[in-house]
Design goal:
149 residues; mainly alpha; Ferritin
Length: 149
């Protein structure tokens, strides 16, 4: 089993684990019911992406990845979200989720580019349109929130 070759995919799955936790927390903390539903749906998209990629990681390393990117940018944002005492929770959540989407999409692009497994690269490229829709949705919600405030 080639754990060195699997390192980018492992990092991507860890990033997805972080993003899933972000969306679950955001769905719980959001004040606006429509945002809660949107965050749940976008989190489900991240769960789906992980479900597609996890089997390739198991084939390469022999184990599923359930860990997180502790010490990474997403982990620090997650702590900020958990500790947030901001009066406008939804605006803060949207700003943080925008960063989550940027980091996740970047990690997907990098992993697809450096993966030595053609199937992994193909699966990631196939997931990108759905993941980009999440990013667009966060941006749309941010614009709506900015107009409303």
């Amino acid at each position: 089993m080639n754990t060195t070759a699997a390192a980018p995919l492992k990092s991507l799955v860890q990033t997805l684990n972080d993003s899933i936790e972000f969306y679950r927390t955001a769905a719980q903390k959001a004040e606006n019911e429509s945002y809660r539903q949107a965050f749940k749906e976008m989190g489900d998209t991240h769960v789906l992406a992980k479900a597609y990629l996890q089997p390739y990681l198991v084939m390469q390393t022999g184990a599923a990845e359930e860990g997180h990117t502790f010490g990474g940018a997403l982990h620090h944002r997650y702590i900020e979200m958990q500790d947030s005492t901001n009066l406008d929770h939804d605006r803060t959540l949207l700003r943080q989720l925008s960063e989550v989407e940027d980091i996740t999409l970047n990690m997907m692009e990098v992993t697809a580019a450096v993966s030595k497994n053609a199937m992994v690269a193909m699966v990631i490229k196939g997931l990108m349109p759905q993941m980009k829709k999440c990013r667009e949705r966060v941006l749309g919600l941010t614009q709506i929130n900015d107009i409303a405030c």
